[in-house]
Design goal:
By secondary structure, this protein is of the alpha/beta class. The protein has 14 helices and 11 strands. The strands form 2 sheets. Strands 3, 4, 5, 6, 7, 8, 9, 10 and 11 form a 9-stranded mixed sheet that branches. It has a two-stranded antiparallel sheet with strand order 1-2. The protein is globular.
Length: 373
């Protein structure tokens, strides 16, 4: 039984994986490049170093991780491939918990460097590195001129709003179907947690949710009706997540029941984990965001648009840290960074709205123009 020991490092930029291991990085590079020399090139290492390291790991593990036949392209052995896929799936599933630890450590260092650093607590959904919220935390930390540190606690959307409602966070991030009506599941779930007079929305923009499918869309899936009709294997998100609420409303519009979807009860904790399950062939399709699909080389079939929003108490809008955050959100640098993730429309990012300006659930007040501060 091999034991795992974790450590962390300090660096200027974020990695594509929250936890890195040299063996798994090498196996991924060999799988992607089809050769030891190609893997060495993308890793910035010598052929000799990669070859020797792989041999060393094989001796330690007692199994071959590479098929070493002469005259053939390098391939992962069945054991090496299984090790790579299962480790990547474990990272995808554990990412929200690991990211919570990462955020707490970064908060510690931020306070260590400057005890007067403005800190905004943010509870937001389980999207790992592909989330606008996680990306925003990284971006704000890399732009000290805006003088704000986001203390991100990953959680499902319902828990994020509940934390705001109970005073445990300054900001809550959640996403909601743009076309949701007053009788929608979104209204039923979220309205009790959002007070019209007390809260304001800070707009991140619009994002697309859709079907994450294998490259080439082999089953030619273009709707939830296709998923139900063909009985392909679906992977879901847990109860309480914003995506699960979106799915409920999309299924109601399509007149589908949970029993119509094969795999409806199979769940993964994040968009990244859904994409990983599809990439590994454990599922044929899942509902998620474009950036998660693109990161795994999968296809994305958009189904709907969502408001991507931060929620805060109206009385805190004049707080210097919140004003700094809104200023950051309105910069072309941030909006271009968000747009580069795919599936995001950053129009109006950083603008402030009342709840009834974004959501149709409250019909007591007429819509007005956005109030920028």
């Amino acid at each position: 039984m091999h034991r795992i020991q974790l450590h962390y490092s300090l660096q200027d930029s974020a990695s594509s994986h929250i936890i890195q291991h040299p063996l798994l990085d090498m196996l991924q590079a060999v799988a992607d490049q089809g050769s030891i020399s190609g893997a060495a090139r993308v890793l910035g290492l010598s052929y000799r170093h990669v070859w020797g390291a792989l041999k060393k790991w094989e001796a330690q593990l007692g199994r071959e991780v590479i098929l070493w036949g002469k005259g053939h392209s390098a391939q992962l052995s069945p054991f090496g491939l299984r090790l790579l896929l299962t480790e990547r799936q474990a990272q995808a599933r554990l990412a929200p918990h690991i990211e919570a630890v990462q955020a707490e450590l970064e908060r510690t260092y931020a306070l260590g460097y400057d005890e007067h650093t403005p800190i905004l607590s943010l509870h937001a959904s389980y999207d790992s590195a592909y989330s606008a919220y996680s990306l925003l935390r990284q971006f704000a930390g890399a732009h000290p001129q805006h003088a704000v540190h986001l203390d991100l606690t990953p959680c499902v959307s319902v828990d994020a709003l509940r934390a705001l409602h109970e005073g445990r966070t300054t900001l809550a991030g959640f996403h909601v179907l743009q076309a949701a009506g007053k009788h929608s599941m979104a209204a039923h779930i979220y309205k009790p947690l959002l007070h019209l007079q007390h809260y304001r929305f800070i707009r991140l923009g619009l994002r697309a949710q859709g079907l994450i499918v294998a490259a080439g869309n082999p089953h030619q899936l273009h709707s939830l009706q296709d998923v139900a009709r063909q009985q392909v294997r679906f992977v879901n998100r847990p109860l309480g997540t914003g995506t699960r609420v979106v799915l409920a409303d999309l299924m109601a519009q399509a007149q589908l029941q949970p029993g119509d979807i094969l795999g409806f009860d199979d769940e993964e904790p994040s968009h990244n984990a859904v994409a990983q399950a599809v990439a590994q062939g454990q599922a044929d399709v899942g509902l998620g965001i474009a950036s998660a699909a693109q990161a795994k080389g999968l296809d994305f079939i958009p189904l709907c648009q969502e408001h991507d929003l931060l929620v805060c108490h109206a009385k805190l809008l004049q707080h210097p840290a919140l004003q700094a955050l809104c200023t950051l959100l309105r910069t072309p640098a941030w909006q271009n960074r968000l747009h580069s993730q795919g599936g995001h429309d950053s129009t109006g990012c950083g603008d402030i709205y009342t709840l009834d300006q974004c959501l149709p659930w409250w019909t007591c007040a007429p819509a007005t123009t956005a109030a920028n501060t």
